Recover the amino acids of this structure.
């Protein structure tokens, strides 16, 4: 390795180790009235829903703001024994992929659906990083209702960012990979054989159903994050890229050599026209598309076979590169859509680009080179200006709708507030410690709700009672209604939050599903009343048509089952009231419990391996006679 590369490596290691430093003035940001600002009196509700990614736990969590209270862990990409997600026969297909059943993933980013660049909060989208997928959550039931796998992709980090009317959800690949029939190639052939893909997933405006509309083939860079243009820049998408060096080993050093990487600007309206004009090429690619049926509450998984790909080296006016210092992580667009902020995590400034100038630079062919024939715009001709001395390690930027931007600084552990027009830093507050994403309610929309800002910190150290080597990740709530940011509250989180979004609770709180009407339950094993409860044998399958209602199961004494039979308990919860689930589990079963919502049917599968009498019971305390809600199943030798 060359000497300057070693020096760079040492510099990077110093940066990487820096986060254990504490910010100066550690407690000073807290003032007297913080407690009253976060106090949500018993019996009253929080003002905002905060949907928070769970990182390596693969789920979303639902948090109230300003209290920081957790209301729900909402299972998405990881199995969740608490309510049978990925264990019940109805939900197993949701976790199917072209690789088969995948029980875990890593969920980084949240996107809340929008209309006219404002939250409509119909759906929450989340990304799976490891086995690339996008999930859609229905925010009237807080259930994951659809999961779409993304082919030609790996490390689905640049996702699931959405356009201002939820026309598209995007998914940009973090890892470029060889694709197609023969992807058994030498890793050394990275530059020739590896490719990056950006996927545009269409969302049906009525139903929310997703469809992989098209992909754009891109150079083998790493795509990190993205933001749609909005208002003024509606029709464009901006992706941050790093490793434009196209290294495939020791990226820590080899992917940090250039002073500038790129923000890739994509004219998706134009791409859409090309798709309509038949300019795409269909290529073979296997991916799963999983949907929850609304009437049966049973998921189906379909394996898709091909995808439409656009080649921007031929369709020359859809992709442009904006140079951006240095390894940009976040890229964010301000509420007007005029400004595009790049956050080079190794850069000393925050560059702010102008959409108007970008269009002019394209018009005037103000180029400084190309990537595979796709133009690189001149940095100076697109630049609105640079925020100077913002701090160390800028990652992400959110907006308050009052002309200010807030950028998280990972290395210097602070949030920096700056004026979008003048680029002047006007305030800074410490975070504890090493903030990743930050979030302002409505921050990525055209109409931020402002008021609060939350820092999602990567390192907790001494903030809570210690719990051995693994400490909770931590969030911190700040009041941003005044000129100066004020720290109000620390609260622990579920998993490791990356991005989160928040919206006013009033948008959805009166639209919540309370129970499912029994008469609309079209599950093939649904029962409408206890009179239909029964046991049926089909070969070596035993189907128990079971009801649950306070406070019994019917049937509750089951005989005639032999070792090796496959027993299906199809449990219908006959309750027609809010907040009365029943649970079910049986001794020794090699699966989780199921938790059945009122009016729903859920199936628990078990293959007994020994003779005996096996008790089962309701796992959710449902009435004063909950402990009476039980039964026995007798298993006889074959
Ligand atoms: S992120 Cu995924 S590495 Cu800054 Cu959006 Cu945390
Ligand atoms: Cu039903 Cu406890």
């Amino acid at each position: 390795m060359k000497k300057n590369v070693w020096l760079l490596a040492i510099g990077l290691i110093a940066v990487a180790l820096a986060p254990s430093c504490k910010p100066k003035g550690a407690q000073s940001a807290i003032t007297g009235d913080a407690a009253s600002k976060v106090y949500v009196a018993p019996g009253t509700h929080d003002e905002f829903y905060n949907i928070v990614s769970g990182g390596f736990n693969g789920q979303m969590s639902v948090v109230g703001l300003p209290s920081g209270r957790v209301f729900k862990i909402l299972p998405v990409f990881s199995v969740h024994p608490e309510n049978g997600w990925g264990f019940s026969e109805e939900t197993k297909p949701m976790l199917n992929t072209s690789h088969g059943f995948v029980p875990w993933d890593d969920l980084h980013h949240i996107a809340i659906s929008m209309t006219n660049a404002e939250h409509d909060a119909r759906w929450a989208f989340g990304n799976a990083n490891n086995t690339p997928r996008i999930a859609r959550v229905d925010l009237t039931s807080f259930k994951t209702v659809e999961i779409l796998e993304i082919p030609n992709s790996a490390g689905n980090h640049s996702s699931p960012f959405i356009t201002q009317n939820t026309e598209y959800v995007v998914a940009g690949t973090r890892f470029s990979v060889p694709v197609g029939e023969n992807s058994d190639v030498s890793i050394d052939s990275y530059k020739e054989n590896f490719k990056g893909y950006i996927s545009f997933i269409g969302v049906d405006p009525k139903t929310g159903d997703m469809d992989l509309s098209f992909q754009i083939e891109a150079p083998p860079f790493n795509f990190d994050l993205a933001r749609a243009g909005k208002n003024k820049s509606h029709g464009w998408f901006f992706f941050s890229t790093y490793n434009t060096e196209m290294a495939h080993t020791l990226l820590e050093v080899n992917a940090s050599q250039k002073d500038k990487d790129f923000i890739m600007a994509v004219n998706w309206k134009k791409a859409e026209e090309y798709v309509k004009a038949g300019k795409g090429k269909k290529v073979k690619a296997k991916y799963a598309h999983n949907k929850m049926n609304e009437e049966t509450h049973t998921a189906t998984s379909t394996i898709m076979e091909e995808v439409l790909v656009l080649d921007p080296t031929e369709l020359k006016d859809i992709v442009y590169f904006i140079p951006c210092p240095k390894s940009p992580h976040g890229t964010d667009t301000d509420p007007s859509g005029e400004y595009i902020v790049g956050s080079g995590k190794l850069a000393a400034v925050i560059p702010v680009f102008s959409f108007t100038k970008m269009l002019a630079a394209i018009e005037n062919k103000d180029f400084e080179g190309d990537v595979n024939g796709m133009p690189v715009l001149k940095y100076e001709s697109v630049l609105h200006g640079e925020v100077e001395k913002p701090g160390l390690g800028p990652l992400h930027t959110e907006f308050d709708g009052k002309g200010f931007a807030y950028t998280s600084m990972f290395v210097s552990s602070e949030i920096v507030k700056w004026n979008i027009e003048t680029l002047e830093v006007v305030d800074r507050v410490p975070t504890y410690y090493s903030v990743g994403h930050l979030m302002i309610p409505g921050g990525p929309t055209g109409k931020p709700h402002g008021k609060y800002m939350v820092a999602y910190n990567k390192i907790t150290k001494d903030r809570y009672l210690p719990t051995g080597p693994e400490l909770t990740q931590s969030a911190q709530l700040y009041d941003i209604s005044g000129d100066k940011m004020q720290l109000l509250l620390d609260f622990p989180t579920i998993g490791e939050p990356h991005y989160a979004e928040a919206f006013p609770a009033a948008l959805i709180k009166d639209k919540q599903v309370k129970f499912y009407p029994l008469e609309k339950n079209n599950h093939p094993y649904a029962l409408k009343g206890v009179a239909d409860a029964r046991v049926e044998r089909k070969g070596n399958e035993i189907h128990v048509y079971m009801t649950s209602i306070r406070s019994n199961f019917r049937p509750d004494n089951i005989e005639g089952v032999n070792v090796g039979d496959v027993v299906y308990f199809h449990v219908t919860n006959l309750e027609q009231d809010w907040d009365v689930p029943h649970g079910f589990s049986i001794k020794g079963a090699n699966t989780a419990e199921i938790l059945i919502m009122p009016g729903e049917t859920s199936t628990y599968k078990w293959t007994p391996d020994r003779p005996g009498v096996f008790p089962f019971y309701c796992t959710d305390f449902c009435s004063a006679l909950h402990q009476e809600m039980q039964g026995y199943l007798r298993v006889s030798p074959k």
